[in-house]
Design a protein that fits this description.
The chain has 18 helices and twelve strands. A hairpin with a 2-residue loop joins strand 6 and strand 7. Helix 8 packs antiparallel against helix 9 and helix 9 packs antiparallel against helix 14. Protoporphyrin IX containing FE (HEM) binds next to helix 14 and helix 18.
C-alpha cells in the first residue's frame, strides 16, 4: 500500500503464473514428515499490537522475511498460520464445512454480534441460518433493490457541500445504512422520525462514530480474549441492544409478519427443525450482524475506491469519459474500478478457519486444531497474479474475470459473504450516480494510510475529498 506497504517489501518469486503447491487434509503419517511453518519471533504483546494496528506492514514483512507460509502469536489462540497462495486458499474454501469452522466466533466482532448470528455460529446452526437468509440476498432479490439504492444515493449526494473538504466515509455510510435498513425492515426511504427503526438507525450511527474514537482502539484491545464485552464496547453494545430489542418488541406486538416480506418478518416467521421460533436474543444477534456487516464494509469499500481513483488521474479520466459520454463500456469501466479497489484495499484484509484435521500447506504441515488464515491483502498483492501490484490499474480487469482464489474480498466457501451481491450492486449504483453528478478531487495528493478497526481496514482520514462541481 503506497505509503505503508512499499512495493519493494514483497519480492515474490515465480512472476508470471503461480507455481502449484499442495494443500489440504492429511493423515498423521504424512504430518510427521513435514516441518512446522516458521514463526515470527517477537514477544506476543508486540505481535498482537502490530497485527491489530498495522496488519499490512506486519504480514508483508513476515512474508518477506519468513516466506509464503508463516505463523504468528496473536489474538486467536493457537498461533495462526497465514497463507496467501491460491492453492492453499482453495484448500480452505473447498473443504467440507465441518473440517474448517470459521474463526469469526473467536474474533473481536463476537462481543458485538453475539454467538447466535449467521456470522458467528457454526455447524448445523450456521447452515440453517444461511439457508434462511440466502434468498433475501440472492442476485434476483438484490436486482429489485436497484431503484431504492439509486434514490438513497441521490438523496445523499444532493446534500454534499461544494468547494469544501469533507469525509466521504460517513456519507457513504448514510447511503448504505438506508439501504440495509430498507431491506431488513421493509421501510421505503429513511425511517420516520421517532419510530423504533429511526432510533436503531441513530444508535447504529452513534456506535460507528464511537468506534472511530482513538479510545475505541484501546477498548478493542481490552476486549480481546473476552467472550463478554468490557469497557467502551460494553457501552456501545448497550446502546445498540436497547434500540434493537425495541424494534423486535414493536414488531412482535404488531403481529403482521405474515403479510410482510422484509427480512425481519421472515426471521419472525421462521422455525427451527423442532418448530421453535427464534428467541429475542437470537433475533437481536442476527439483526445487529446484518446492520453492522451490511453497511460499514460497503461504505468503506466505496470510500477506498474514491480515495484511489482521485489519486490516479488516468483511471479517473477514463471512467469519467466513458460514463459521462454514455459509452457502451460504461458499466464495464465501473466494474473494473470496483474490482481494482477491492483488490488493492480489501476492507476485510484476512479471513480464518480452524482446521479440524492435520493439514498440509505447501512444504509444511500443521496438526488438527490449528487456526489457518487466508490473507486477502497478501494474495491481492502477489506479483505473479497481479503484475505491478501496488499500482491502481482498473484496466488490468479488462477481459479478465476475478479468480475465486486469487480475488476474494468476500472470503469464500460456505462462509462467503452473504451480502456480496448486494454490496456489488450498491457500489455500482453509487459509483454511477457520483460519476454522473459530481466532479471530485482528493483534498490532498498524499494517499491515505490504512487504519484497522475491529476486523476492517479503512481509510485513516475517512477518504477526504472536495466536490468541485455538481451537475
Ligand atoms: C464491500 C462490502 C463487503 C465486504 C468486503 C464483505 C466481506 C465479508 C467477508 C470477508 C466475510 C467473511 C467471509 C469468510 O469468512 O470467508 C463476510 C461475511 C459476511 N458478510 Fe459481508 N462483506 C461486505 C458486505 C456485506 C453486506 C452488504 C452484507 C449484508 C447483510 C454482509 C453480510 C455478511 C454476512 C451475514 C456474513 C457471514 C456469512 C457466513 O458466515 O455465512 N456483508 N463479509
Amino acid at each position: 500500500m503506497a505509503e505503508t506497504l512499499e512495493a519493494t517489501e514483497l519480492p515474490l518469486e515465480g512472476r508470471g503464473t503461480t507455481t502449484p503447491s499442495p494443500a489440504g487434509p492429511i493423515d498423521a503419517a504424512e504430518l510427521a514428515g513435514l516441518a512446522e511453518p516458521p514463526m515470527i519471533q517477537l514477544p506476543r504483546a508486540i505481535q498482537v499490537l502490530r497485527f491489530t494496528m498495522r496488519q499490512e506492514q506486519f504480514v508483508s514483512r513476515a512474508r518477506r522475511e519468513l516466506g509464503e507460509v508463516f505463523r504468528f502469536n496473536g489474538v486467536i489462540a493457537g498461533r495462526p498460520v497465514v497463507v496467501s497462495h491460491p492453492d492453499h486458499v482453495k484448500s480452505l474454501f473447498t473443504a467440507p464445512p465441518e473440517l474448517v469452522p470459521s474463526l469469526t466466533g473467536e474474533s473481536p466482532l463476537r462481543p458485538f454480534v453475539g454467538e447466535n448470528s449467521v456470522l458467528t455460529s457454526q455447524g448445523e446452526r450456521h447452515m440453517r441460518q444461511r439457508k434462511l437468509l440466502l434468498p433475501a440476498f440472492h442476485g434476483d432479490a438484490v436486482a429489485r433493490y436497484s431503484q431504492m439504492i439509486e434514490r438513497a444515493a441521490e438523496r445523499e449526494i444532493a446534500r454534499w457541500p461544494v468547494g469544501e473538504p469533507f469525509q466521504l466515509a460517513p456519507r457513504m455510510q448514510a447511503i448504505t445504512l438506508d439501504v440495509i435498513m430498507s431491506g431488513i425492515f421493509g421501510i421505503e426511504g429513511r425511517p420516520k422520525h421517532d419510530t423504533p427503526e429511526w432510533r436503531l438507525r441513530q444508535a447504529t450511527k452513534q456506535v460507528v462514530t464511537m468506534s472511530n474514537w482513538a479510545i475505541a482502539q484501546v477498548g478493542e484491545l481490552m476486549n480481546l480474549g473476552h467472550s463478554e464485552p468490557v469497557g467502551i464496547a460494553k457501552l456501545a453494545i448497550s446502546i445498540l441492544d436497547r434500540a434493537t430489542y425495541e424494534v423486535i418488541a414493536d414488531r412482535r406486538r404488531a403481529d403482521d409478519a405474515g403479510d410482510r416480506h422484509d427480512i425481519l418478518s421472515m426471521l419472525l416467521r421462521s422455525r427451527a427443525d423442532d418448530g421453535e421460533a427464534l428467541t429475542d436474543r437470537e433475533l437481536r444477534d442476527e439483526l445487529v450482524t446484518l446492520v453492522l456487516a451490511g453497511h460499514e464494509t460497503t461504505a468503506n469499500s466505496l470510500s477506498w475506491a474514491w480515495e484511489r481513483l482521485t489519486r490516479t488521474p488516468d483511471a479517473y479520466d477514463e471512467l469519467y469519459e466513458s460514463v459521462r459520454g454514455g459509452r457502451e463500456d460504461a458499466a464495464d469501466q465501473i466494474e473494473y474500478v470496483i474490482n481494482e479497489a477491492m483488490r488493492s484495499r480489501p476492507v476485510v484484509p484476512i479471513v480464518g478457519r480452524r482446521v479440524q484435521s492435520a493439514w498440509r500447506i505447501g512444504d509444511f504441515g500443521v496438526p488438527a486444531g490449528t487456526p489457518v488464515s487466508a490473507s486477502i491483502l497478501l494474495t491481492h498483492h502477489r506479483e505473479d497474479l497481479y503484475p505491478d501490484p501496488y499500482a491502481f490499474k482498473p484496466r488490468r480487469w479488462a477481459g479478465r474475470k476475478p479468480g475465486t482464489y486469487e480475488w476474494f474480498p468476500f472470503g469464500g466457501g460456505t462462509r462467503r459473504c452473504l451480502g456480496a451481491s448486494l454490496a456489488m450492486a450498491e457500489q455500482r449504483v453509487v459509483f454511477d450516480a457520483m460519476v454522473k453528478r459530481l466532479d471530485i478531487e482528493a483534498d490532498r495528493p498524499e494517499p491515505e494510510r490504512a487504519r484497522h478497526r475491529n476486523v476492517t481496514m479503512i481509510p485513516a482520514r475517512g477518504a477526504r475529498v472536495v466536490v468541485r462541481a455538481r451537475h
